[in-house]
Amino acid sequence: MDKKSLLQMTVDIVASHASMNEISKDDLLLEIDMVFNKLAVLSGGEELVAEAVTIVEAEAPVEVKPAVPLEAAFGSDKVFCMVCGKGMKTLKRHISTAHGMKPGQYRKQFGIPSGTPLVAKMYSDQRKSMAKNLNLAERLVKARAARTKKKKAAK
Known about the structure:
Blueprint: H1 3-20, H2 25-42, H3 50-58, H4 70-73, E1 79-80, E2 87-88, H5 92-99, H6 103-110, H7 121-133, H8 136-154
Antiparallel strand pairs: 1-2
């Protein structure tokens, strides 16, 4: 496969991913390198930019100052990302896709207690009441009992 085709495929893939996820400039460049290399390898070529990928991955994480104070970050209707300041209902997916962090890393970096949920209180309450209305707890107990009974019958 020629280089022009590889570049076009790389552009299409990375543009598609970037349109659905917030990506920093460094992460975007890294993703372009990784996708291009993977396509080159899959098409029978060699890795072309392996050094750039290794250098970027080897860099130490940079300390980020909170964009929002801890007291203001956790509201009843929104939780705010302490990295970029965006407000949303839940942070877990956002910090993973936009900032490449796991919830534990995020909590540690900003001194958030482990018992503090990374979701808005109102959102959590809505999900809880919906689960109660649908009797999800009872259904779960019944499903587990049926599964246990089925396993015992199989033995």
